[in-house]
Amino acid sequence: MTQFLSQTLFPALFNMSLTAGIVILCILVVRLALKQAPKVYSYALWAVVLFRLLCPVSLPSGFSLLGALDAPARQATPVVSTVTYLQPQQPAEAPSQAEQQPAEPDTPVPEPVTPVSPVQTAPSVDWAVVAAWVWMTGAAGMAGYSIFALLRLRHRLVGSLHLKDNLYLADYISTPFVLGLVRPRIYLPSTLTEQEMDYIICHEQYHIRHLDHVVKVLAFAALCLHWFNPLVWLAFVLAGKDMEMRCDEAVVKQLGENIRADYSASLLTLATGRLTIAGTPLAFGEGDPKGRIRNLLRWKRPKLWLSAAAGIACVAVIAACAANPAVQSSPTPDHNRTGQYASMEDFAQQTMENTKEVTYYKLSNGTATTEEATAQVTGTKIAWLDKMGEMDGLAPEGILELWTFCYLVQIDAPTEEVALVGGMSEEDGWFDLEGQGGHNIVALRCPDGTYDVLYDQPVNDNRDFYGYHNSYEEAIYDWYVTDQGLDLPLYVEDWTEQITYPDGEYHGNFPVHRYDGDGWYLYIPVSAWNQWAADPTHSVWVSAYNTGSAVTVDYLETSLADSTRGMTPADDSGRIFTAQADGWTYRTYYTDAADGGCWKITTQWQDDAITDYPYIAIEPQVMALMAESFTLDSRITPAEETLAMTAVLQNLSPEGGRLVRVECNKETELTRNGTESEVMRAAASKLEPIQDPESYMDADGGLCLYLDGPGDCHISLYAILSQPATVLLRYVGDTVNESALAEDPQLYLYLMAAVEHPDVEFHDLDGDGFQEVLAWPAGDVQNLIIYDYYDNEIQKTNPAQTLGVEFAGYTGLIGNLQQEYSNMVQAGSGQINETGIYQYDDGTLTWVCSLEDALLTT
C-alpha cells in the first residue's frame, strides 16, 4: 500500500496538479478578457480544469498550451499521453553479474516486464512516503468532513413538506438549495414569498437541467484530491461564482429584466454569508451575492457578434488546454527504429504478392499420394488477419505484438487433383494449403508505427508456440526471452528430462507453468496439482490424485538461522531439512528474504499412499523440483487487478465451498468431483477487469453458477450467450466487488453443461488438449451426454442416440489404442459381447474395437 501511494499514485496526482495549475493560470487570464461577455463562457472554461484535475491522460496535439511551454510528455498508450514533471521513484536493485560488466556502446538492455518492488537500503526518512501519507490524510479528512456535513444537513431536513414534483418546503434553513445526486431535490425556506419562489425555483431547476449539482460534486472531489494546491482552491471558488452568475443571467433572460430588483433583494436576504466547501448543497445564496448583484445590474442581452467571438475563444482555449504536447517518439532506447512494413496489412499484402507458386500433393483415385506437384498462383485473398495480444516494456526497440494470419489462393490446377491433407481446405476454388490455423506472427511495432516481423510460422508446423501458455502475452514473452537469450524466467518449461519414472519408460512431456508470487516465483506442473491456498505469505498446492502430497510456501519473519536452530540439515547447503512423523515425510527448503526473514518451502508425502503407478510414484521428486524452482525475484509481482477474484478461483477445491446452479431463483447444488478445479484455475489467469459489467449482463446472458470461496466471499459466473466462449465473473467479498471477463471456451462449456445437469465432469476424449464436458442426466452412468466446443459454438452429443444403441457410457480406459487415444466411449445393446469401444472427435463416434479387445490391449 505504501509503495503504491508513494511511488505510483501520489507522483501521478502531483503531475496532474502541476498541469492543472498551469491551465488555471491560463483560464484566469482569459476570464479577465471575457469580463464583459455572458458568464456562460467563463463558466465553460472551468471544464478543462476539472478534466485536468481528474484525468491523468489526454490526446496529444500540435495545438497545445503545454506544448508551447515545452511540458514533458510521454506516450501512455498508442492513443493517449501523459505529462510527467515528476518521475515515479525507481526502486534500487542490486546489479546482476551481467550488469557489472562494461556494456558495449549502444547495446540495448531489456527493461523488466513487471514492476520492481522497492528495496530500502538505509534507515533514512523517505520523504516521498511521508508526503504521500500527508496527502492521503488531508484528502480523507476533507471527504470525511463532507460526509459528516451532509448527514447533519439531512437530519435537519427531517419533516420537510413535499409541495410537488421535486420541491420541498423546510423550516430551519436560511437559503434555498439543491440536494441529491441521482434524484436531486429542491428545498425552499418556509419564509419565501410566492413571487420569490417563482424565480428561485427557476434558478434551481436551471442548475439541475444543466447537471450543475453533479459538476459541483466532481469539483469537490477534485479539491479533496488536490487540497495541497492553492490554485485549485482558487479555481473552486471562482468556478462556483461563475456557475451562479451564469444561472442568474439565464433566469433574468427567461423571466424578464423587470425582476432584477426583486431578485437582487432576495439574493441579499438569502445570502449564506459563507462558502460551502463540502461539495453539497448547491445553495441559492452562495457564490458572492454582492458580486452577483453587480453583475445583474449591468447585465444586458449580449450582441450576437460578442457571443460568437466569446464562444470561438472559449473553444480554442479549451482545446489548447486539454491537449497534451505531441509526442514525437516512443520512450524506448531506440527512438529512430523504423520497420520494413508500414502496417501489418502491408505485410499481409506483400506476403500474398510474393506468393507466385505453391506445392501440393496429388490425388489418385481419391487417395492422397506422395507425388508432389507445383502450380502457379492466379489469385490471393486474406482469410483473416487478427491481433491476438501485445507486450510493452520487453523489447527495447518497441512493442511486441502477436498476430494470426491466413490467406487463400487460387491456382492453375484442377481442384479434383489437389489432395487436402493436414487441415488444408478448399471452398469455391479458393485453397488454404497451409492448414487450419494460419500463421503465428510476432511483430515489433516501432515508435513510428511501422512493423518488423520477427517470427512467422504456420500454426500446424509449430503447435508448441502457444502450447501450455495461459495467454498470448505469455507466448510472446517466452518466445522473445528464448530468442534473445534474456536472463528472465519463462512462463512455461519442460521438466521431462528431470523426471525419472520408476518403470524406466517414457511417459510423455512434463510441462510446468510459472506461478508468480509477490517478489518470488516457482514452477507448478500444468496438471495433477491443485492450488489450495494463495495468500501472499502462505500458498499451498496439493496432489490431484488425493494422495495427501502437498507443497507449501510460507514467509517467516524470523531469520533462517533462528528458524532452523537445533535442526540437523539433510545436505551440505544447510538449508534443507528432512523430518518424519506418523508415516509422513517432510522435506523443508529455506531461502533468505531481503528483509531479514526467510521463506520456507515444505514438501510432504506419505509413502503408503504412493503406489507403483508411474504418475503417482514420482510425486516426491516432482515436489522436490517445485521447491527447488522457488526463486526470489523483485521483478515478479502478482497482478493487482482481480487479485482477490483470482485467489478464489485458484483456491477452489472439492472440500472447500459449494458450487450452486441458480435458475429462476431456484438453487441446485452441483456435484463436486474435482474436475472443475483445474479449469477454474486456468480461467483465473485469463481474467480481464471490466468497468461496465451490466452491459454484458444485458447481453443474452443468465446467471449460471454461484461459487462459494474462502472466508465470506463468493463468485457469480455468467455465460455470455451473445459472445461465445466468454464468461463474466463477479466477485463479491467483504471489501471487494469486482467484475472481470475470461475468454475461456472450457469454462464457458462447463457453465452451459452445468445449467442442464448437476453432475458434470471434464475429460479429454479425443486427446487434443481441450477437455470436453461429460454429463449424466439423473446420475445414470449409462446415459452419457457429451458437451464440446468447436466451430465457434457449443455442440451436444448423445452417443446412444447417435449410434442407435440402448446405452452409452464413459469407460475411462487409458491405453495405446488407435494412435494412443484414451478415454473411450462404451456403447451397446446391453450384452457384453455386443458392446463396442468408440473414439470421439468433434461429435463423430468412430468404432475402435470390442470391449474385450480393449481390455486385453490396455
TrEMBL record:
Residues 12-295 form the Peptidase M56 domain. Residues 91-104 have a biased composition (Low complexity). It comes from the Bacteria. This is M56 family metallopeptidase. Residues 105-115 have a biased composition (Pro residues). The keyword Magnesium does not apply. It holds the Pfam family Peptidase_M56. The chain crosses the membrane at residues 12-33, 40-59, 127-151, 217-236, 304-327. Residues 91-117 are annotated as: Disordered. It comes from Flavonifractor hominis. Keywords: Membrane, Transmembrane, Transmembrane helix.
